[in-house]
Write a structure and sequence with these properties.
By secondary structure, the chain is α/β, with parallel strands linked by helices. It has 17 helices and nine strands.
């Protein structure tokens, strides 16, 4: 049974234009612009957005007893009233994770988020200089604002993960990024993972650039306070060296992918098909397909995987590594998103093999 709701809100509305953005790979929603969307970006009592967001969130929670809610955009902090949404729904969950590009993550917003004792933040940043972060922004002032806000987030005491997309501008520099982040030792977790999407090979690192990941592994004792488990990095390196995944994927069984318009997808990593729309169909009938639809046999087979599955590697991979015995419950609980009582019961159907 899934214990994660990966909730995507207004995926096309963002204040950055990352060159490798995944938005173009999504086929489940109509595109809109921030200008065209107008009032639809306001979560307020009685608004259309409030009604749909609450209906999707509550329907999934009631069906599965979800423990983790992850919410992202687009840029989720562009949604006016989003903290009101978080405050309303937070008491139900063990953990809530907010993914942001960090531009709007001001001390004022952080102070309001800090009121939620089960909150953690993911900040997307690939490097601390334009040299390695150029696919996200070429503007030094914007990058400095993100770095300043990262510092504000750490000082607020909210647990922070860093979404670091690996590409040909930063793969060889990752030890330098880790050295920069040592100022936040034991207060952030750097999660590197490969660029994804239909144009990923335009940005992919070549073999000679993987030295940065090798450096993280070789110097793991120096960096372990800011890195995920070593087994994750070793699996990541093999993935990049071999060009395909070696670990079976159970993630679709553990997570529901959802959108604010009601679409439900069987994989939160790959938005290629919908199980139905909770707002346009019988919600119960749609949610009954979760974990049961025949598409799950395709997504979770060990051999003859879809190409998109074979070439997929994200921070969720720690759950697959747990299921194969490479990580333990204790390893997972060292990560902000999984540091809660009851994680064992969430994974009871997938006991670690030998961990």
């Amino acid at each position: 049974m899934p214990f994660i709701n990966d909730f995507v809100v207004k995926e096309h509305i963002c204040n950055m234009k990352c060159e490798y953005c995944l938005t173009g790979t999504g086929v489940l929603q109509e595109r809109e612009t921030a200008k065209a969307s107008g009032h639809s970006m306001h979560y307020a009592e009685g608004s259309d957005l409030q009604k749909t967001m609450d209906a999707v969130t509550e329907g999934i929670y009631d069906a599965f007893g979800i423990s983790i809610l992850k919410i992202s955009g687009g840029e989720i902090l562009l949604v006016k009233g989003i903290i009101d949404y978080l405050k309303k729904h937070a008491p139900r969950y063990k953990k809530i994770q907010v993914l942001t590009n960090g531009v709007l993550l001001s001390p004022g917003i952080l102070a309001r988020l800090k009121e939620l004792d089960n909150i953690c933040i993911q900040i997307s940043i690939d490097y601390h200089t334009i040299e390695g972060n150029g696919y996200r922004t070429q503007t030094p002032e914007k990058l400095q604002r993100i770095l300043d806000n990262l510092g504000h987030a750490v000082r607020s005491g909210i647990p922070v993960e860093i979404n670091c997309v690996i590409h040909d501008k930063n793969a060889h520099l990752l030890t330098g990024f880790a050295e920069y982040l040592l100022q936040y030792d034991h207060k952030v977790i750097l999660f590197p993972f490969p660029v994804r999407g239909k144009n990923k090979f335009d940005f992919y690192p070549h073999a000679g650039q993987l030295s940065g990941i090798e450096g993280l592994i070789d110097r793991y004792p120096d960096f372990q306070g800011i890195l995920p488990p070593k087994a994750y990095l070793e699996s990541l390196l093999r993935f990049l060296q071999n060009g395909k995944r070696e670990v079976p994927c159970i993630f679709p069984k553990l997570a529901v992918g959802s959108f604010e318009d009601g679409n439900i997808t069987p994989c939160a990593n790959y938005w290629f098909t919908s199980l139905g729309n909770m707002m346009g169909e019988n919600p119960r009938a749609v949610l009954e397909k979760v974990g049961a639809d025949k598409i799950y046999r395709v997504l979770m087979q060990d051999r003859h995987r879809l190409a998109e599955c074979n070439q997929c590697f994200t921070p969720w991979e720690v759950l697959n590594l747990y299921a194969m015995g490479a990580l333990s419950i204790a390893d997972l609980k060292k990560l902000p998103l999984y540091s809660f009582d009851g994680l064992e019961s969430c994974l009871a159907d997938f006991p670690a093999k030998g961990a």
